[in-house]
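Bug report (template v2)

What were you trying to do?
Predict the complex of my protein with magnesium ion.

What happened?
Run completed; filing so the output is reviewed.

Input:
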Amino acid sequence: MALGPRDDGLAILCRALCCSFGDHEVLNSLDLAVPAGRCVAMMGPSGSGKTTLLHVLAGLITPDSGDVEVAGLDLVSASARALARHRRERVSMVFQFGELLPELNVAENVSLPLRLSGKRPDEGRVQGALEAVGLRDPGAWPAQLSGGETQRAAVARALVTRPAVLLCDEPTGSLDAANSEQVVRLLLESAHQSAATLIVSTHDPAVAARMDETWLLNDGSLRSLRCR
Ligand SMILES: Nc1ncnc2c1ncn2[C@@H]1O[C@H](COP(=O)(O)OP(=O)(O)O)[C@@H](O)[C@H]1O
Ligand SMILES: [Mg+2]
């Protein structure tokens, strides 16, 4: 069920969220409230459930129980059709290794989310997204890109639909400090420009420090480490 914009200005609201795989409880009565336009870092040891939480917010995993609202949609009661639309139009994900499709060139990778929405890819929009991340060769193949360029292409692909919520799963985990800083700056600039809400999971304190606030995921729930 679509709720529309929330009166309280929250882009993300999780209440008593529980999520398990078999008898392994990963998220245990987790609460999270993120105002629209806020940039949040999520830290936590490997296996603590960062990816799982991001997948729940993206509408890829249905939690066992609890409430989840993202960008005005109640993900728990949403129909499969509404969830598919949510994934196509309201949220985008960036992964650790970019996950570009190797058989598509950079421009084709970036325009893919528009094609999946059944829209004729707007060349200007694709071009704008590539320019925003500083990629000059739209015809390049993923195999020809450096790690930093791959991540910048992945960011362009995530931004091309102008999502309300941008979910990034260790987006700088495979980059050196200079490339990491460039990708973080891009994510922050893009989020600010489009008033998008940004969630970034990371092991890097330098990345976390650039966000408005940092949360630690441990034992299935979040606790605030820092808030600006
Ligand atoms: N699809 C799955 N099936 C079974 N167990 C899973 C699945 N996805 C994640 N897990 C388990 O859930 C826990 C949390 O994983 P994950 O969310 O990937 O943590 P993180 O991203 O913090 O490293 C881990 O113990 C992992 O093995
Ligand atoms: Mg992970």
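What did the reviewer find?
The chain has one domain: 36-62+79-227. The longest strand covers residues 10-21.
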